[in-house]
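Narrative summary of target 7.
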Amino acid sequence: MATFEDLQVLKAAEAVADSIWKRVTQWDDFAKDVVGKQITRSADSIGANIAESVGRYNFGEKLQFLYYSRGSLFETKYWLNRIKERGLMNQGEVQEYIEGLTALARQLNSFTSGLKTVRADQKKSAIRESTPEYITDSSEALFSEEDLAFLGS
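Modeled conformation, tokenized:
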């Protein structure tokens, strides 16, 4: 039986976080304290929130933690911009991390969409009184193409 550790989206988040950790440990104490702790926490938080979403029973809570993960992903992008501007990594290194975050954002979108599909299927099979039909946009994604473009810049 597969466990949450087997989730590809979680493995991708862990890879980004572990790579950032290894890079930050090479910095001087001031850089580690001011920027290193922040980016390490935000990168770790991406995967931690994915893991926490899996442990939640309620679909609304599951989605909320995936949204927290999205926020941490954007926070990590923010810190990468600071790192680049402060000369702690070169442009090429920063760009590699941004590409990794963009790929992770797409995986997070897919994971969230899959969860929403499971939720919709379960709602269809439940026995309930009939309810009014609400029109929703089922194509709602965690990241818009504009968000993904921003991550890649």
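Residues 4-122+139-152 form a domain with the de novo design (two linked rop proteins) fold (CATH 1.20.1440.60).
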